[in-house]
Write a structure and sequence with these properties.
Keywords: Membrane, Transmembrane, Transmembrane helix. This protein has about 210 residues and is α+β, with helices and mostly antiparallel strands. It is about 45% helix and about 15% strand. The strands form 2 sheets. It has a 4-stranded antiparallel β-sheet with strand order 1-2-3-4, covered by helices on one side. A hairpin with a 3-residue loop joins strand 6 (about 135-140) and strand 7 (about 145). The chain is globular and about 65 Å long.
Length: about 210
């Protein structure tokens, strides 16, 4: 049995870092517009907003973090966050395809014109969403998508098990596996694994 476990700590820090960046930008803008001073804030209103924010982040983590347990004949997906605990087990011979989502920052805003609008869409999206947004789609007679933000890619010497390790393990079990379109384009020339090793700054880091 092999367990591929999402780190809730890493996922939480990623979300908080992005949202603190947004808060800093907005606070700076208000400070400048308001003649270099900050307006008075109702403490009760601020505490209520902070409580709702924490509830939102908790719900977000519960929905978007799953662990994967692979045995000789099953793949089990486990949500471990309290109030969001869930389990779904798949027999390996029932799985027709496992599709893995490659780093979304490479393709976000694709097709938007003009380029300046595409640039702002890309930058704002990367503030709102974790840069290591990822999911696995399991297709049997239906398709099921499982998010796993806290499961790391192989970059910055992250310790395993990794997102790619799950891909390799399922492939070794004879399950048809694919990466999403952009990663598939990489495999035509040098292979996705080689691209990971040679260009981590481009494909697996926030610009």
């Amino acid at each position: 049995m092999k367990k591929y476990e999402s780190s809730l700590v890493k996922a939480s820090l990623c979300i908080l870092r992005n949202h603190l960046s947004i808060l800093f930008v907005l606070t700076s803008a208000v400070y400048i517009i308001n003649d270099f001073s900050l307006p008075e804030i109702d403490v009760r209103l601020a505490l209520a907003f902070f409580g709702l924010y924490l509830l939102g982040v908790y719900s977000y983590l519960g929905i978007t973090n799953n662990d994967f347990i692979l045995t000789d004949d099953t793949l089990e997906v486990v949500g471990k966050v309290p109030l969001f605990r869930r389990r779904r087990k798949f027999l390996l011979y029932d799985i027709n395809m496992a599709l893995f989502r490659h780093d979304w920052t490479v393709t976000v805003g694709e097709g938007i014109k003009p380029r300046i609008v595409q640039f702002f869409v890309k930058e704002i999206s990367q503030l709102l969403f974790p840069f290591d947004y990822k999911w696995v789609e399991i297709t049997t007679h239906h398709t099921f998508r499982f998010y796993c933000f806290g499961l790391s890619y192989n970059y910055f010497d992250n310790k395993g098990p990794l997102f790619e390790d799950l891909h390799k393990a399922l492939r070794a079990k004879g399950i048809p596996v694919k990466w999403t379109r952009y990663a598939s384009m990489l495999t035509r020339s040098s292979g996705f694994e080689r691209a990971q090793e040679n260009q981590p700054h481009k494909y697996f880091s926030k610009p």
